[in-house]
Amino acid sequence: MSTGIVVVIVVVIIVIALAIGVAATVRRRRLQQQFGPEYDRLAREHDSKRKAEAELAQRQRRVRKLDIRPLPPEAQKQYAARWMSLQERFVDDPEDAVAQSQMLVAEVMHERGYPTEHGDQVAADLSVEHAKTIGNFRAAEEISQKATAGTASTEDLRQAMIHYRALFRDLLGDTPEPGDENAVPAQAADDEFASPGRSGQVPPPAGDYDPAAGRHAATSVPVNGETTRDAMTRDEASRDELSREELARDEAAGDGAATDEPAPGRTRRRS
After folding, report:
1. In degrees, to the nearest 5, what angle opens at C-alpha 69 toward C-alphas 205 and 97?
2. 11-30, pLDDT tens digit by residue?
3. How far apart are CA 99 and CA 42, in angstroms?
4. How many CB atoms lie within 10 A of CB 190?
């Protein structure tokens, strides 16, 4: 075999290796972008990015075979109304509200075409198209298990409602409006929320939950049924009204005094 042929073969092998490396890099970036924290969780669990990527690719192939479909608008409205009813029920019966929320989420998943028979497989299927809220789903399911065992506090139950709502809204294709993250009632049946500085608080939005860090991002806090932003708007309106009253009084006082030139649109007062 001539030297030229050997060189050509070596070059071809190098090109193929580079192409494979580039393809693997592109595939890895796509999986990281699509799955986010779920990619990192699997990489830690398997102690291998390659194994994590293989599992995620397998999840993608499985979900492609499922008949996943969006909800019609009318069904979205009905489910949204049922969720609001559960949030109101939370005040009087937190445990039942969480249990019903779990079933409602499962019902929505089933109607959209997701199998709901096996818990681990449910999370794996959801992670393909709902990676941003899959951590919330796992956290909510964990709290639901504690509630079944009777070891969940009212705060735990309220956190579960927050987490279930994140996935619920994601499944409905809904985007939370500003301030809506505080919609879960803060009142509870025990004294846990009656302590000074905690009454009326609602956990941060579930969409901001970071499973890896185990914490939430800061958010506004509702007081007496309104958010901080609402309270600020109300105060600003009160200040504006007060300013207008003061301005009116100043103008009235100015009208009573003698002036060298009459103001536009006014007649000079005679002494």
Report:
1. 40
2. 778 888 777 777 777 777 88
3. 28
4. 10
**Distances, alpha carbon 39 to alpha carbons 121, 127, 241, in Å:** 16, 10, 54
Give the Cβ contact number of residue 246 at 10 Å.
Answer: 10
Place of tokens 């509200």: 97
Report the C-alpha gap between 123 and 121 in whole angstroms: 5
Calculate the alpha carbon distances from 79 to 72, 118, 152, 167, 202 in Å.
11, 23, 26, 13, 22
Residues 223-243 have pLDDT tens digits of 344 443 444 444 444 445 545
What is the sign, positive or negative, of the torsion defined by CA atoms of 12, 13, 18, 24? positive
Give me 231's structure tokens. 């309270």
Whole-angstrom CA distances from 22 to 11, 87, 101, 135 are 16, 49, 45, 30
